[in-house]
Design brief:
There is one protein chain. This protein has a six-stranded mixed sheet, with no helix packed on it. A six-stranded mixed sheet has the order 16-13-17-21-20-18, sandwiched between helices. 24% of the residues lie in helices and 29% in strands. The protein has 649 residues and is an alpha+beta fold. The structure holds adenosine monophosphate (AMP) and magnesium ion. The site of adenosine monophosphate (AMP) has 17 residues, from helix 3.
Length: 649
Amino acid sequence: MSNVSIPKGRDAVDQEQFLTILSREDALARFEAAVFPRALPVEDRSLAEALGLPLAHDLVADIDVPPFDRSNVDGFAVRSADLATAGEAAPVRLLLNDEVIACGTAPTRPVLSGSATSIATGGPLPRGADAIVMVEHTQPEGDRAIEIRRAASPGQFVSYAGSDIARGETVLRAGTVIGSREIGMCAACGIAKLPVVRRPRVAVISTGGELVQPGETLRPAAIYDTNGAIVSAAVAENGGEVKFFGAIADDEAELEAAMRRALETSDMLVLSGGTSKGAGDVSHRIIARLGKPGIIAHGVALKPGKPLCLAVCDGKPVVILPGFPTSAMFTFHDMIVPVLRRMAGLPPRSDAKVTARIPVRIPSELGRTEFVMVSLVEGAGGLIAYPSGKGSGAITAFTQSDGFLKIDALADQMPAGTETEVTLLTPHVRVPDLVIVGSHCTGLDLVTAPLARAGLVVRSIAVGSLGGLAAAKRGECDLAPIHLFDEKSETYNTPFLGEGLELVPGWRRMQGIVFRKGDARFTGLSAEEAVRSALADPECIMVNRNQGAGTRILIDRLLNGARPDGYWNQPRSHNAVAAAIAQHRADWGMTIAPVADAADLGFIPLAEEHYDFALVTARKQRAGVQAFLGALASDESRAALQQAGFTKA
Ligand code: AMP
Ligand code: MG
């Protein structure tokens, strides 16, 4: 196994560079220059264990394949000259030699003129013979002779020695990734072991005292370590051998010990979290002590991913990915994967790309290359790419997208209607059979479940009621789930439909006041009494909803102009309201019954909210829409909705 070699002169890389933000291209170029060239370690592996690894050296065959001239069919080995005069009216009679050449049997008798030897597919051609006649083209004459009524050309149905692979031929080139075809080739040549590039050993460490490993119990204020799992998997997907060291708290001594331990047995170290230069973020300080040249870039003009830190310590790349999982994934794929794959001897990743139009303007920060996750749907004039933006803290932005687009560092926006390139996260686009854009409800998953079971791809994009209506009006979706209350008419949804849209009744969601069970300020009261009781207690804190939410209108009516403590805390979802109360950050608020139940909170019913669908009439006959309407009307979904606390309209 060869050792890593780093050219001299890199020690001088300026340690102060991390104070400047580098462009994405500049940072990647400097990182690659500090890591390469390097000798790639080589190991011998059995054929089965070489699967997926790149071949380290050219491979030369040292035998001929096939090793002898062999028959391609079941038939008779003959001298073609004997059959020169054969024809329909002029049969030629050949005497059979006293042997049968089965596969794996070496012939013992020559084929003399006027004779033939029975031979099986794969049998070696006997001395004297130069062609094979198929058994179908012969007529037995007793069991000692055959009759043939057609001529045979020399070499007919014969594979000559070395015609597949010739001894001395280069069968596989260095760098070829070993797949089943390559393994077959090696097996045919009798090669049992292959020299391959050893997988780089990559240590993965998550940082932060707030992190708990999946499978363990979440304590208050803690979150699950997402990066540990996702980075480990992405390392493996790109040719690395992962060793996960768990999550380490931001303690300088503890983290330094873990990083040193990880580097001892690894070729590369990938950390996540703690990249900003705030108090408690210590990993970049430790890197400076781990080896030369140290930090190459700290701060890259990328969005998401600005705080990325790239370093090389005594020949080993050490990187700190941003803490937010989506940022961590982007920077890993964009900046680390190229280096990792080169270290693994693998070719650069070839991502599939498609062209799509963006339906809405996407603002972008000037001076940073921005990546935007998108979901693809089929529009009238081709593919449409919906930004699935939920902020860099959202893991679903990554897992529920089809791909991403890139906004140039020098652009401050991408205007609506732009045709742009989308890099796919999967090898192919699968355009959904049904597209639902609007407000999300857990009831929706119950109704679409049978469609998914039937093999239909349902794409649901949560953009809120108004966003859904706009998408429906532009013809970008089949259905827009909405729950909009019109104060003038005091009705839900219908007043908001425009031309080309029709209402499909969905279900009702009971809204009401939520509080922690046992709170005497609310237990047993009506909604109006509960609000009076809350307002009477100056210690009581509420949690509100965002402007524009149907629930917010109900709250404001109940408050009748009052602005109690907590009024300005305005989360955007039913679940956030329940979480705030369950975690004692607030004492009361308004949410829907199923959410209150799931969080084990007390609930005072107030009014039913109508969750309906704006259907794009022009798309009503599509198979996906018809399947949805069928599922919505079924007894199965009625029961499932009921069970979950919703009432079918
Ligand atoms: P940091 O840069 O360490 O301050 O992290 C930024 C954000 O990412 C914080 O909200 C962290 O809790 C979160 N974060 C950091 N590491 C992880 C991880 N391994 N999994 C999930 N979230 C993380
Ligand atoms: Mg942290």
